[in-house]
Amino acid sequence: MALNGSTTNQALLHAQLELWQNTFGYIKSMALKSALDLRIADAIHHHGGSGATLPQIVARIMIPSSKIPHLRRLMRVLAATGVFAAQHPPPAAGSSRDNEDEPMLYTLTPVSRLLVGSQNLAPITTMNLHPAFISPFFELGSWFQHEEAPESCELFKHAHGQTCWGQADRDATFNALINDGMVSDSNFLMDIAISECAGAFEGITSLVDVGGGLGASAQAIAKAFPGVKCSVLDLDHVVANAPAGDTGVQYIAGNMFEKIPPADAVFLKWILHDWDDEECIRILKNCRKAIPAKEEGGKVIIIDMAIGVEPSDLRHKEMQAVFDIFVMVINGKERNEKEWKKIFFKAGFSDYKITPVLGVRSIIEVYP
Predict the structure, then answer these.
(1) Catalytic residues
(2) Could you tell me which CDD domains the record lists for this protein (predicted)?
(3) Angle value at C-alpha 22, between 20 and 26, nearest 5 degrees
(4) Based on CB atoms within 10 Å of each CB, which residue in 37, 68, 256, 357 is the most buried?
(5) pLDDT for 153-173, tens place per residue?
(6) Start-to-end Cα distance in the chain
(7) Angstrom distance (rounded) from CA 319 to CA 325
């Protein structure tokens, strides 16, 4: 009986641990946000592969001495969650001295290496952790209880009084936050996408990147495929901030809900998950009008999640489920294959191919 009681007790404690993991998950997010705000990864990176001690980090991030003990505790969380690694330095050659009293060395991990360098993911991570996107979730429970018209059923608008895209149109700082975030994600992902699925971009002579922001994806495609004439379609206030000089890309101000310029291929990276089914069908119908027949090379190339297409590990499944709730804040939606097929066929397309080679995202080719 004692053994059975002990087993039951341990099961209860394990359940409590799981409950705490979910309850305090926000601490990990806020610790990461603090690391970004303080540029801790850059401070460690400054000292090279050997790592940096806490005093060396403090010298770079310039915090008051009174906060150093608290920074040590923050670093312990960031090390425990795999953002950084922490270890005591190895003892000097020939030394018998215990190195436990030596200052801890903090080094970058594969995760934090994504936050440094010329093509880092710090901007998209900063965007995802911005209060404008986090604060609406405090209203999630009450939001579920209110009956709202579909066009008003946006958690972001419920919290801020305007849509995400409306705020981007009116607030230059918020607009820059989104554009910089999208550029950083494209700089990271597009080389991988082109390497893993080059065939999706071969055989076409022109491509329009719809909602392509500042053109990072189109620039990567133009560089990899010099024979493809690439252009970007986006709203006026976005195109107004397009990079100057010869980028190899043409920028066109317009609205994807109204008209898409003609091209062999339309490219939609992380666009359709921002919209509900009816809005996606409107966008896709305009894509269909813009491209030639399948026999002439016409296609739509999508980078988005396709939930459950391939057997994946628990972390992939969890992130896809979490991301579906994250985009719900702007009335978006992540889709499984059945849901993708439904909107493709309703928009007048005849076939599609999903290639799940981008982690939790896939490349989807859709044919007229």
Answers:
(1) 273
(2) AdoMet_MTases (cd02440)
(3) 105
(4) 256
(5) 789 998 999 999 999 999 999
(6) 68
(7) 10
